[in-house]
Write a structure and sequence with these properties.
The structure is a single chain. This protein is an alpha/beta fold. It has one domain: Glutaredoxin (3-Layer(aba) Sandwich). The chain is built from 6 helices and 7 strands, in the order H-H-E-E-E-H-E-H-E-H-E-E-H. The protein has a 7-stranded mixed sheet with strand order 2-1-5-4-3-6-7, with helices on both faces. The protein is globular. The N and C termini lie far apart (about 65 Å). The N terminus is likely disordered.
Amino acid sequence: MNWRKKLYSIKGKICFIVLCSLFISCNQEEQKSSRVEVLPYYNDASFTPNWLTPNSLELRNFHKIPSFSFINQLGTEITDKTFQNKIYVTDFFFTTCPGICPKMTSNMLALQEEFRDDNDVLLLSHSVTPEKDSVNILKNYADAKGVLTHKWHLVTGNREDIYNLGRNYYFVEEDLGEAKTNEDFLHTENFVLVDQNKHIRGIYNGLNKTSIAQLIADIYTLKSEKNF
């Protein structure tokens, strides 16, 4: 009887290990895809999802990120054409930020690592103190953090242009109905996902690991869309 009990015990442990392995494998697969087959589109600060048909007239006339021109950490001009036919994640930060920015940078680094060898995915971080964050300062910051220059652009430029993009086109800041000017500091933890056609496809809390995991999953979903 004892040998039978031992045999059943061994079989039970083996089954448990197999089930755990399957569970972990399934979870890893789930992290590579979103909860939907196609991501919604967004066109205002409320981030109300719009479910549009690819290649439709409505989508062609839908909100897009406009043309822009900034200078990155290498002193190279970065424009909207840099991101042509690319998926990219964007945020707004400043190099001397002692609060939320270090965590945001850490999570951007996680995105950089996840898509290190994927030429279809780029990262874009705008300085909200461009008068202080010169090219040299951005370069030193990038080097210290391990930023890959071909993957992640840290940009400086005209303050008005940066703030206009952030508030009126990326909608990264909740204004709660309050009118703001360029004198009002732009400070937000939000990451925005933009598709290869300059459409906003998601907004995420750049401080939250669960939100970043969802962002990664949504990028994979975006890459799998038929119109990519």
